[in-house]
Amino acid sequence: MTTSPALLWYGDDFTGATDTLGTAARAGLRALLFLRMPTDAQLIAAGPLDCVGLAGAARSMGPDAMRTELAPVVPLFHKLGARVLHYKLCSTFDSAPDVGSVGLALQILSAALPGARTAIVGGQPDLGRYCVFGNLFARAGSAGEVHRIDRHPTMARHPVTPMGEADLRRHLALQGLERLALVPLTTLRGPPEALQARWQALVQTGRDAVLFDVADNTDLEQIGVLLWREATCAPLLVAGASGVVQALAPCIAPARVARTSAPVIPACGPVLVLAGSLSPVTAEQVRNATSFETVWLNPEALITTPDYLVDGAQRIAALLRDGRHVLACTVAPGQVVQRSIDAQALALAGGALLAQVLNAAPLARVGVAGGDTSSHAVQALDAWGLSYLEALAPGVSLCRLHSDNPTLDGTEIALKGGQMGTPDLFERLVHGTA
Fold first, then answer.
1. Which UniProt keywords are listed (predicted)?
2. Which CB contacts under 8 angstroms, 24+ apart, belong to 142-148?
3. 276 and 236: one domain?
4. Which residue has the higher pLDDT, 412 or 281?
5. pTM of the model
6. What is the pLDDT of residues 407-423, one digit of tens each?
7. What is the DSSP letter of 141?
8. pLDDT tens, position by position, 304-323
9. Most Cβ neighbours (<10 Å): which of 11, 198, 260, 387?
10. 239 and 311 part of one domain
11. Domain residues for 28?
């Protein structure tokens, strides 16, 4: 890498990290997502980059694990010479004091960045996420109704981090950000000098962070201009979904032309999808996956019985070698998953399963559904990076794996969170989007 990137983003799960990768690439920025802390050789091989990503799994971690996970992030930020450190979180802000705490993450990172100012971008309109007077709203599914987050049919009942509070100031105060200020829509849509004055007044009062409302993309443009101006003077820490990169991209490389989208071509061989998500959106995608042979996996046995995992991997690999597309699911239709099942242990088992399958039956294209499942599944692979290929659906990027293992290098992979993707998403992996 011969020049300093403008921005380093840390994704608190792999699905969100790839969405940010896609957002940067479509804006014309040179971007690469590393799956673990990059070596000097990998950074040199990457060449000049505008944005560097680091995929992580903090969203599923407790406080002690988060401290260990985030400790190397700021040293990498300084090593790269970047101006903006973006803590990329889920666009629904689902988190809790004891699991994936956004407040704790910002406290850890800001403590390692003395003098840095901290902002939170509250929405991502392109994904149906809106923050209005501090309250978060989210669309249900790819084209569903918009709900206040504490009344959202899925996120209000999330099995690990249910969202019981829509006001992000209250939600994040429970995670340690008790002095969180707001820049509301009324200020964003006023004179630019009033927005600048409001920001300066808030950051000078020692606030933990400043939260910005976002109702449409023009709000993101205003926020991007303000935050980039700040970043040119001092390090800037920004939390939010991929809307952060969307806001900053025109300022980072104003002469760069946005990338023209192209259709995803059909798969050139059998496709494997591992579905570990419990969301209704993923359930609909499973029902619509008519090109696949479905293998139902018992989640408890997958965690507790090594022979069951090995046998399942062998059965899936055999189907793939026969040229069949396979959908491996840990939740059957109508099945009630026992609360005693450890979600993280299940995600880790899914990762081990995927690694064994790909070792036995190398593939050209793979999909993984579920934020935690995606994080642990990709971490189980012998790969070090991802680059963007095309958008499979809003919020879902088709990427290329980079690995020193020739059987994995070049594999196409799509990682999707539970709320992301169109009903025919898995069919798109097989047939493309043309």
1. ATP-binding, Carbohydrate metabolism, Kinase, Nucleotide-binding, Transferase
2. 142/281, 142/393, 142/394, 142/420, 142/421, 142/422, 142/423
3. no
4. 412
5. 0.87
6. 899 999 998 887 788 99
7. S
8. 899 999 999 999 999 999 99
9. 11
10. no
11. 7-252
